Amino acid sequence: MPDLLLELFSEEIPARMQAKAADDLRRMVTDKLVAEGLVYEGAKAFATPRRLTLTVHGIPARQSDLKEERKGPRVGGPDAAIAGFLKATGLASLDEAKIQRDPKKGDFYIALIEKPGRATLDVLADMLPVIIRTFPWPKSMRWGEHSARPGALQWVRPLHAIVATFGMETEEPEVVQFAVDGIAAGQTTYGHRFMAPAAIGVRRFEDYEAKLIEAKVVLDPERRKDAILTDAKQLAFAQGFELVEDQVLLEEVAGLVEWPVVLMGSFDKEFLSIPSEVIRATIRNNQKCFVVRSPEGLPAASGGRGDTLAPKFILTANIEASDDGKAIVAGNERVIRARLSDAKFFYETDLKTKLEDRLPKFGGIVFHEKLGTQGERIKRIERLAAEIAPLVGADVEKAARAARLAKADLLTEVVGEFPELQGLMGKYYALAQGEDASVAAASEEHYKPQGPADRVPTDPVSVAVALADKIDTLVGFWAIDEKPTGSKDPYALRRAALGVIRIVLDRRIKVSLREVVEHHFKNSFDPRKIDVSTQSDLLMSFFEDRLKVQLREQKARHDLVDAALSSGSLVEGHPLVSIVDRVEALGKFLDTDDGKNLLAGTKRAANILRIEEKKDGKTYDGAPNAALYHLDEEKALAQAIDEVKREAAAAVSKENYAAAMSAIAKLRPVVDAFFDKVKVNDDDAEVRENRLRLLNEIRAATRTVADFSQIQD
Fold first, then answer.
1. Under a CB-based contact definition with an 8 Å cutoff, are residues 185 and 230 in contact?
2. What whole-number distance in Å separates Cα of residue 559 and Cα of residue 561?
3. CB contact at 8 A, 446 and 462
4. Which of 35, 261, 420, 639 has its CA 20 to 30 A from that of 373?
């Protein structure tokens, strides 16, 4: 079947937009093809700095013919209804209609409409201009003599040419005949801007991609990334260095070039006196260059901080220069030298002012109009960190000191220039001014984890400050009713809650999150203006939702999570660790025969209770009367329940949930025997009620660990 080749050739497309633009082009074209009844075999889109390209193969040459029967009015019906039927179906008269016999409802007119399918070439000619005109660029522009006209094309950068061909692999393809703003589709594209700028005639994708390679254009961004990474590694290795890989930078650089050429430059060794992260950020952000590590024995960034960098960098040019890239390297070296001079000045200037001396400025910086200044927030975090410290095994004074200094680097010159280095620079400045190592580490680690792939802090002082920072954020925004809604979460509160959960679980901190949150509400906000209990309930429910998300990502069964929460929730003050331990123990128990059979028995008891309670209009939650036990199976069950309740409760109090599960497993044989020998709905009303109360005791005994009614079979 025929294939489509589409290329939109323009001025420079920003690297950050290329991947999404390629995907949008593929999606828009293929969705429209399917909507037109043209099901294709495969499609792939590509982007370079100057072109978006799409190839779709296996498209039918034309649409299928459409045959449709349309039911009309009853024979002998109103003239207006018949006239409307003829007009809607395009029939000249009722003679062209068929009559459908229906003895019950009467005879109806039927129109048989046949709509011949269109040639795919014509369908493409109609749809592609619309897709081009409605393409969803984040930002677009108009240009040239057509720009002032109503409806002028808007594109990310000036669009210069369109390639659109369609045809069989074994035949000469046809050009899809359309034009957009005076740009007619054809078979002509252009190669590399400098090395092969001449026009190129193309036919189909294989021929097109091969001719672009000849014209110094690598179409596939994955191939460009592979080439850059491979060449950069080899160049670094050949000079005795190791490339510091950077996937994000690699993606960006691959979007800046059509013909990648990797070169190495150098900078003065004197700049190695500043932290390696500052060097890397300077070179990366300003010149989109990679840095390299230095083997042992060569000059490197001092102090053992971060990567041991060499005074070299690797750049990616977009041309094979006649001087082997010497001028390009020299130009980059001049810019990097100037930028590193600035960075060195910023760093050395920052070292002259102690972190604590910067704190008064926070008093004039608003954190949020309803939550006060950054200075006020720092005091709240400092107080909370000191309160959390004993709970996580941290030194109280160090935790308070770390919280006091943790945000100070936000006012430094280096962080002002490179915001991504916040925290890290605070650690360096704290060490330089003689702060305790744990206090310094907390400046960097209190922001962690910032995502699912980020590590959690491990030093107890860092843990205390990280929890205090995140909990203060959550409590504050809950207090002013700025909660996440739907997909909107402008203050990253979901991430903060997940951060708290990950830290607590990773470090197995067995504290009541409810108590910590409620205490911070009371200490930080006027209780006359906020209902502390209600807001704590709401925040704990939010934590439970985030916990469910976290556990689902770890492949935990949602019903087991619900069952564990029903027997001991965050809202009720139970520790996070205890809930997760319950889920794990419950899962292991239900994998055993005892677990599976007991689950079946408890569900049977719950179902009987639910039916009888609904029928009788009352609950059976009172204690059974032992004098009404007539059968040995009743007595055995009652005795087993009493024993299991005591054992399970004792095990739960020690947070030994495996032992609690072992205890309730003892119910299995007596529950089985009860249902085998005992008629619950006895003819004697008193006996019946007593046996229903005994069933409720089964439910109560298992709820010591989890609500088994929440568990799916």
1. no
2. 5
3. yes
4. 420
Say whether 54 sits in a helix, a strand or coil.
strand
Whole-prediction pTM: 0.82
Q: What is the dihedral sign for C-alpha 545, 546, 549, 552?
A: negative
| 16-59 per-position pLDDT tens digit | 999 999 999 999 999 999 999 999 999 999 999 999 999 999 99
Decide if 351 contacts 295 (C-beta within 8 A): no
Burial of 145 (0-12, 13-18, 19+ CB in 10 A): exposed
Query: Distance of CA 665 to CAs 203, 541, 609, 638, Å?
Result: 73, 31, 21, 15
Compute how many other C-beta atoms are within 10 angstroms of the C-beta atom of residue 342.
13
Distance separating alpha carbons of residues 181 and 154, to the nearest angstrom = 10
CB neighbour list of residue 127: distance below 8 Å, 6 or more residues apart: 29, 32, 33, 36
| Beta bridge pairs of residue 264 | 314
Burial class (CB within 10 angstroms; exposed 0-12, middle 13-18, buried 19+) of 434: exposed
Q: What DSSP character marks residue 138?
A: S
Q: Compute how many other C-beta atoms are within 10 angstroms of the C-beta atom of residue 420.
A: 11
Q: CB atoms < 10 A from the CB of 174, how many?
A: 15
Separation CA 266–CA 280 (nearest Å):
13
Q: In this predicted model, what pLDDT tens digit does every residue of 153-199 receive, in sequence order?
A: 999 999 999 999 999 988 899 999 999 999 999 999 999 999 999 99
Provide, for the chain, the percentages of residues in helix, strand and coil under a 3-state DSSP scheme, each rounded to the nearest 5: 55, 15, 35
Helix (H, G, I), strand (E, B) or coil at 344: helix
The answer to whether the beta carbons of residues 167 and 204 sit under 8 Å apart is: yes
Residue carrying the six token digits 């750049």? 315
List the Cα angle 657/658/662 in 5-degree steps.
115
Rounded distance between C-alpha atoms, residue 178 and residue 186, angstroms: 9
In the chain, the amino acid numbered 170 is: T
Radius of gyration of the chain (CA): 36
DSSP conformation class of 114: E
Decide: helix, strand or coil at residue 488.
strand
d(CA 141, CA 154): 5
Strand order across the beta sheet in which 242-243 lies: 242-243, 290-293, 309-317, 261-266
> In terms of DSSP H, where are the helices of 310-449?
326-350, 355-358, 374-392, 396-405, 413-417, 424-432, 437-445
Residue 611, classed as helix, strand or coil, is helix
The answer to whether 124 touches 4, Cβ cutoff 8 Å, is yes
Question: Please, where are the H alpha helices in 418-485?
Answer: 424-432, 437-445, 460-479
For tokens 């041991």, the residue is: 308
Retrieve residue 93's tokens: 């008269």
Query: What φ, ψ does residue 182 adopt, rounded to 5°?
Result: 80, 0
359, β-bridge pairs: none
In this prediction, residues 503-530 reach a mean pLDDT of 92
DSSP type of residue 260: -
Given a contact cutoff of 8 angstroms between Cβ atoms, the answer to whether 284 and 437 are in contact is no
**Distance separating alpha carbons of residues 289 and 249, to the nearest angstrom:** 8
Residue 177 CA to residue 396 CA, distance in Å, equals: 76
Distance CA 348, CA 218 (A): 44
Ramachandran bin of 471, using left for φ above 0, alpha for ψ from -120 to 50, beta for the remaining angles: alpha
Phi first, then psi, for residue 44 (nearest 5°) are -150, 140
CB-CB neighbours of 396 under 10 Å: 15
**Among candidate residues 640, 685, 662, 492, the one with its CA nearest the CA of residue 588:** 662
